[in-house]
Specification:
Blueprint: E1 7-12, H1 23-42, E2 47-53, H2 58-67, H3 71-88, E3 95-98, H4 102-117, E4 122-131, E5 136-137, E6 143-146, E7 155-156, E8 173-177, E9 185-195, H5 200-209, H6 217-228, E10 233-235, E11 237-239, E12 254-256, H7 258-277, H8 283-286, E13 290-295, H9 301-315, E14 330-332, E15 335-336, H10 347-353, H11 358-367, E16 375-377, H12 379-409, H13 421-442, H14 446-467, H15 469-475, H16 477-497, H17 503-513, H18 524-527, H19 550-571, H20 583-587, E17 591-601, E18 609-614, E19 619-624, H21 632-635, E20 639-643, E21 649-651, E22 654-656, E23 659-660, E24 662-664, E25 670-672, E26 685-686
Helix pairs in contact: 2-3, 4-7, 5-6, 6-9, 7-9, 11-12, 12-14, 12-16, 13-14, 13-16, 14-16, 15-16, 16-17
Length: about 675
C-alpha cells in the first residue's frame, strides 16, 4: 500500500454501450468508486476519476445485428443514455470519455505498437472457430456452448457466467454460432498473443506476496487460482469488422481485442481530461507517488489483476494498481440481474417512478452492497430502509433540529452557555467520527462507513431524546440554547460526512442550513468546535426523505412479474410432435362444445372437481383434475370443449363419462380450450 500519495487515479469499469445502466452496475462499481473519489476531494486530495463508454467488441456487433442498425448507431444511442444516468445519480467523474474517440484509437495503437516493436508479443497461426454459413471467424461472444469446467450449457466463448471461469472459444463443448446457429468449424488464422506465462514470477511477487494482506479475499483468491492454474499466452487481436485496427503490417482486417483496448481507455480518458484542464497526464499514470485504484465487478478481476498489469509491465513506464476492490454481484428479488431478460431496475426508469430519490437508491445499494458476497436487492427492503432508516433516523433528526431552531430563535443559531458533561461527551464523539468513517472508506468498506454516518444521526437523535429541549424550554431556556447549538453542530457535520454517500441530500441540507459547499471540508469536523457559528441564520425545514408507500412498491413488483411472465412466454418451447395419426384415427374422436352446469369438489381429493356438463346430446358427469386451478364457482357457466366418446372411467366411486380439453399458459396455469365465438351451440361437432 502506498502511504501518503501525492495524487490519486481512480478508474471505474467502462460500461458496454449495448444497453442502459441498471442497479447492479451502480452497486458493483459506480457508487463505490464515487464514494471514494468524493471522500478524497473533501480531504483536498488531487484526484483524477476516470471512466468512459466501452464501444468496441462483440457485444456491440451483436446488438447492432439484433436491432438491424449499425454499430455506430448502437454506441451513440446508449452512450447518451448511460451519460445521463451517471449525471442523474451524481457519479462525479472528472472525465467520461469514449473508446470510439480518436485520442483513444491513437493511444491504444501506440501502446500496441510499442509492445510489438519491443518484441513483447508472440505471432502465431492457430485454428479458430469459423462459421462457414456466415463466412466469418467467430469472436468470443459469437459462440456459445457447454462450459468444460461446470457444465453450463450457455457459456460464452470468453467466459462462463455461471462459474466465472475465463475461457477460449475453442474450449467449449458442442459450440454453436450465435449468428446462424450452425456448428462452427476450425480454420487457420494469424494473431498476436501476449505470453502471460512469462509474467508468472512478476505476478506472484506483485500480487500473491505484495498484496496478500491488503487486497480483498475474493480478488486475491481468483488471481491466485489463475496463476496457480498455469498462465498461457492470450490473444490480443481478433478477426472482427468493428474495433480498433491492428497497426502493423500483415494485420489487415484484424482488430485489437476489446480487453486489450478497453483498459487503455482509462489512460486515454486521462489524456483527454488533462488536455482540457491544462495538466500533464503522465504523473497520474507514471509517477510512483500516484495511487492507482481500479473499481470493477468480480467478472473483470482477471483482466484488471493479470492481463492489464502484464500489459503495463511489458510497456515498462506505467505504475501498477495499488488496489482493485472488486465487488461481487447484486441479484434482484432472488434472481440474477440480466440485461437480455430485462430482469433489472434500469436507472432511467427508476427516476420516472421515484423522482428526486437518487439518494434513497444510493443509500440502499451501499447499505446492501455485495462487498464480500453476492447480495439481493428487494423492493420491500428498499422501502423499509428508506422509511425506517433514512426518514425515521436521519430525516427525523434534521427536521427536529431545524423546526425547533426556527420555533425558538427564528432560525438563528443560538450562542451556547456552559457545556455540561453530556454536551462535551457528545461533541467529542462527533469529532471522532471522521476518523472512524475514513478508516472504513480507505479499506474500501463502504457499507461499514455508511453505517457510521447513520450513527452520527443516531447520536443526534439520542442527544435530543435525552435532553428533551421541548420540555426544558419552559424550565431553563438558557440551557436550551446550548442544547440546540450542540444539535446544530451534529446536523452540520452530517451535511459534510454524508456527501460521499448521499450527495443530493448533502446539497439540500447545506441549503437548509445556508452553508456553501466550500465552507467546510472533511477534516474540519474533527478540528472545529463551531462548524456552524452562533448568530448564523438557517432556513426553514424541508422533507429530506419522503416516505415510500406500499402502492409504489407494488407497482414495481407488478412490473417484475410482467417481465417474468414475458420471459416465460418467450422461452416456452412447444411439446414435440407425437407419433403420426391417420385421418381415420382422428375421426374416431367425438369432440363437442358443451357448458358446465354444476360443479363441486370431490370429497377427500385436492385435485378433482365433479362437473355436470351439457354436451348438447345429453347432460353427463365428468370428473376433471382442475380443482387446484379453479373453484367450483369459477367454472359454472363456462363454455368448454369435451371429448364425449372417451370410455367411461370410475374415479373415487364416481363414473366420469368424457374429458374437458385443457392447456397450460406460460405461468403453468390450466386454461380451458373453449369456443369463444358467439352462436356456437352446445353439441356442435369439432372437426
Amino acid at each position: 500500500m502506498l502511504e501518503n500519495p501525492k495524487r490519486y487515479t481512480i478508474t471505474a469499469a467502462l460500461p458496454y454501450t449495448n444497453g442502459p445502466i441498471h442497479i447492479g452496475h451502480l452497486a458493483g462499481v459506480y457508487v463505490p468508486s464515487d464514494i471514494y473519489a468524493r471522500y478524497l476531494r473533501l480531504q483536498g486530495k488531487d484526484v483524477a476519476f476516470m471512466c468512459g463508454s466501452d464501444e468496441h467488441g462483440v457485444a456491440i456487433s451483436m446488438k447492432a445485428k439484433k436491432e438491424g442498425i449499425t454499430p455506430q448507431e448502437v454506441i451513440d444511442k446508449y452512450d447518451g443514455i448511460i451519460r445521463q444516468s451517471f449525471l442523474d445519480f451524481g457519479i462525479s467523474f472528472d472525465n467520461y470519455s469514449r473508446t470510439s474517440a480518436k485520442i483513444h484509437h491513437d493511444t491504444a495503437q501506440e501502446f500496441f505498437r510499442k509492445l510489438y516493436e519491443d518484441g513483447k508479443f508472440i505471432e502465431q497461426t492457430t485454428e479458430q472457430l469459423y462459421d462457414a454459413k456466415a463466412d466469418q471467424f467467430l469472436a468470443d461472444r459469437f459462440v456459445t456452448g457447454t462450459c468444460p469446467k461446470c457444465g453450463n450449457e450457455e457459456a460464452y466463448g470468453d467466459q462462463c457466467e455461471k462459474c466465472g471461469s475465463s475461457l477460449n472459444a475453442t474450449d467449449l463443448i458442442q459450440p454453436k454460432s450465435t449468428i446462424t446457429g450452425e456448428t462452427p468449424i476450425l480454420k487457420e488464422t494469424k494473431h498476436w498473443f501476449l505470453p502471460l506465462n512469462e509474467y508468472d514470477a512478476f505476478l506472484r511477487e506483485w500480487v500473491l506476496e505484495g498484496h496478500k494482506n491488503d487486497w480483498k479475499s475474493n480478488v486475491y483468491g481468483q488471481v491466485k487460482s489463475w496463476v496457480d492454474g498455469g498462465l498461457e499466452p492470450r490473444a490480443v487481436t481478433r478477426d472482427l469488422d468493428w474495433g480498433i485496427d491492428v497497426p502493423v503490417e500483415g494485420a489487415e482486417g484484424k482488430k485489437l481485442y476489446v480487453w486489450f483496448d478497453a483498459p487503455i481507455g482509462y489512460i486515454s480518458a486521462t489524456k483527454e481530461w488533462a488536455a482540457k484542464e491544462g495538466k500533464d497526464w503522465e504523473p497520474y499514470w507514471k509517477d510512483q507517488d500516484t495511487k492507482l485504484v481500479h473499481f470493477i465487478g468480480k467478472d473483470n478481476i482477471v483482466f484488471h489483476c493479470i492481463i492489464f498489469p502484464a500489459m503495463l509491465k511489458a510497456e515498462g513506464s506505467y505504475i501498477l494498481p495499488d488496489n482493485v476492490p472488486a465487488n461481487e454481484f447484486l441479484n434482484l428479488e432472488g434472481n440474477k440481474l440480466s440485461t437480455s431478460k430485462n430482469w433489472a431496475v434500469w436507472l432511467h426508469e427508476y427516476l420516472q417512478d421515484f423522482p428526486d430519490k437518487q439518494d434513497a437508491l444510493r443509500y440502499v445499494l451501499t447499505a446492501n452492497a455485495p462487498e464480500t458476497k453476492d447480495n439481493d436487492f428487494t423492493w420491500k427492503d428498499f422501502q423499509a430502509r428508506n422509511n425506517n432508516e433514512l426518514a425515521a433516523i436521519y430525516g427525523n433528526f434534521i427536521n427536529r433540529v431545524v423546526v425547533l431552531t426556527n420555533k425558538y430563535y427564528t432560525g438563528i443559531v443560538p450562542a451556547p452557555n456552559e457545556f455540561t458533561a453530556i454536551d462535551e461527551q457528545t461533541l467529542a464523539e462527533l469529532k471522532a467520527y471522521p476518523a472512524v468513517i475514513s478508516s472504513s472508506i480507505e479499506r474500501y468498506r463502504f457499507r461499514e462507513a455508511l453505517g457510521e454516518v447513520m450513527n452520527v444521526a443516531r447520536l443526534g437523535n439520542k442527544y435530543l431524546a435525552d435532553e428533551e429541549p421541548w420540555k426544558m424550554v419552559k424550565e431553563n431556556p438558557e440551557r436550551v440554547k446550548t442544547q440546540m447549538y450542540v444539535a446544530l453542530q451534529i446536523a452540520t457535520a452530517l451535511s459534510v460526512l454524508c456527501e460521499p454517500f448521499l450527495p443530493f441530500t448533502s446539497t439540500k441540507l447545506k441549503s437548509i442550513l445556508k452553508l456553501t459547499d466550500s465552507e467546510l471540508n472533511w477534516n474540519d469536523i474533527s478540528k472545529k468546535t463551531d462548524l456552524i457559528p452562533s448568530n448564523h441564520q438557517i432556513g426553514q425545514a424541508e422533507i429530506l426523505f419522503a416516505q415510500i408507500d406500499d402502492a409504489e412498491i407494488q407497482k414495481q413488483m407488478d412490473k417484475l412479474e410482467a417481465t417474468k411472465t414475458a420471459n416465460k412466454i418467450e422461452n416456452t418451447k412447444a411439446e414435440p410432435q407425437k407419433e403420426i395419426a391417420t385421418f381415420d384415427d382422428f375421426t374416431k374422436l367425438d369432440i363437442r362444445v358443451g357448458t358446465i352446469l354444476e360443479a363441486e369438489k370431490m370429497p377427500k381429493a385436492n385435485k378433482l372437481l365433479v362437473l355436470k356438463v351439457d354436451t348438447g346430446i345429453d347432460v353427463r358427469t365428468i370428473v376433471s383434475g382442475i380443482a387446484e386451478h379453479f373453484s367450483p364457482e369459477e367454472v359454472v357457466g363456462k363454455r368448454v370443449t369435451v371429448l364425449v366418446n372417451l370410455a367411461p372411467r370410475a374415479l373415487r366411486g364416481v363414473e366420469s363419462a368424457g374429458m374437458i380439453l385443457m392447456t397450460n399458459n406460460a405461468e403453468g396455469k390450466l386454461v380451458f380450450v373453449n369456443p369463444d365465438t358467439e352462436g356456437v351451440l352446445n353439441g356442435a361437432l369439432i372437426s
